[in-house]
Specification:
With about 400 residues, the chain is mainly alpha-helical. About 80% of the residues lie in helices and about 0% in strands.
Length: about 400
């Protein structure tokens, strides 16, 4: 629906922001969920004082990261939009900056509070937060972030002509709050280290997601492939959900045996064989199999929902479903394999996987999912599955 709004039609760089900002929930909220889940499981949130300390430090930390990464995502969107076309508009650049920073800040605030509630509730009900918190962060993150991005960018776009000063004011307001959040995060020992060392995965993940956004922008801008817009958040959301659960579970499993860099798992990790990742008797291998088997029924439910709500521009023919499912299965298979290697590799390098692995994995999920989906649409077009089947 949103792809037909004026702001998406006339400022197409907003499409580049979509995977980057939806990916932020992987970079920030799902990392927060994984970090707090591990803290809850190993008893670091049992007293009210410890709980309050973890909450304030982590909330301040994600506000810092959200503001900075939102600003960098807008710069990436401007550059990626400018290079292919050679057209630059300062008004559109400021609009993208204001929309991105405001969306990232507000979404992180809302989702962070929801995550804390979910993790505390899970502990009280005796449920492992690893299995619950990251999927809720991912799914709610997509919905809330996309709603905020579209609403804020639409509102700011309407103000461009009559009140041009509103856009730069929004940018300045959110960026001016940065020092406050930095001070709060620095005072907390649990988040001080991440404040200094946690930028590399978040920024690289944002860049990877922005490349996925460029693919989305180029594909959706072609009227023949307008139908891709409705499936992109679905395939990326499912892939990110499943791999985040797996990464969070492996990380908690490793934390049970000691600190990063300690124990038998600290030995240099080479690429595991696919058999050990998916077919061994190990507890993490069993969870990988379960998560992989969720792909087909999960996507069939989503496809049925999209079809029954008459969303998008694509008729769900058998050949389309086969191509779509192949892309989805391949995406999750690759992500679960990479997660098995990456989490253990980071642990052996004395890096906490809760802080470093999920941003990379969800960003790769966005890139692989968008790339495979675009490839599927192009192949379907080439073999003659056209008109109402692929494009409107």
């Amino acid at each position: 629906i949103l792809q037909h709004w004026d702001v998406f039609k006339y400022v197409t760089e907003v499409f580049i922001l979509v995977p980057a900002l939806l990916g932020l929930k992987g970079n920030l909220e799902m990392t927060l969920a994984s970090r707090l889940s591990t803290a809850a499981n190993i008893g670091q949130m049992d007293t009210p004082k410890e709980l309050w300390k973890m909450i304030t430090g982590n909330m301040a930390l994600i506000q810092v990261q959200a503001t900075v990464v939102g600003f960098l995502a807008s710069i990436a969107a401007v550059v990626f939009g400018w290079i292919p076309d050679g057209h630059f508009s300062i008004d559109h650049a400021v609009l993208l900056c204001a929309s991105s920073v405001a969306t990232a800040f507000i979404a992180s605030l809302v989702l962070g509070m929801i995550m804390i509630g979910v993790i505390i509730g899970s502990r009280k009900m005796g449920i492992n937060p690893d299995n619950v918190a990251t999927p809720i962060a991912a799914s709610l993150g997509d919905l809330i972030t996309l709603a905020l991005l579209s609403g804020i960018s639409w509102g700011l776009y309407k103000e461009l002509e009559s009140k041009a000063y509103v856009n730069p004011l929004v940018c300045v307001f959110f960026i001016s709050l940065l020092p406050l959040w930095i001070v709060v995060a620095k005072r907390n020992s649990a988040t001080r280290e991440v404040l200094y060392s946690g930028w590399e995965p978040v920024i690289i993940a944002m860049a990877i997601s922005s490349v996925g956004g460029l693919i989305l922008d180029r594909t959706v801008s072609d009227p023949n492939f307008a139908g891709m817009a409705v499936f992109t958040p679905v395939i990326n959301g499912v892939g990110g959900n499943l791999v985040a659960v797996q990464a969070s579970r492996i990380s908690t499993y490793l934390h049970m045996s000691g600190l990063p860099g300690d124990g038998p798992e600290a030995l240099p990790r080479r690429c595991p064989s696919p058999c050990s990742t998916f077919f061994s008797s190990d507890v993490n291998s069993r969870s990988a199999r379960v998560l992989f088997l969720l792909v087909v029924p999960g996507h069939l439910v989503f496809l049925y929902t999209i079809s029954s709500m008459q969303g998008g521009h694509t008729t769900l023919t058998l050949i389309f479903i086969v191509f779509y499912m192949t892309a989805a299965l391949l995406q999750v298979l690759i992500l679960l394999y990479i997660a098995d290697w990456m989490v253990h590799w980071m642990w052996g390098r004395d890096l906490d996987p809760d802080n470093f692995s999920i941003p990379y994995l969800t960003a790769l999920g966005d890139l692989i999912g968008t790339g495979l989906l675009a490839l599927s649409f192009h192949v379907l077009w080439l073999i003659g599955d056209r008109d109402s089947d692929v494009g409107d």
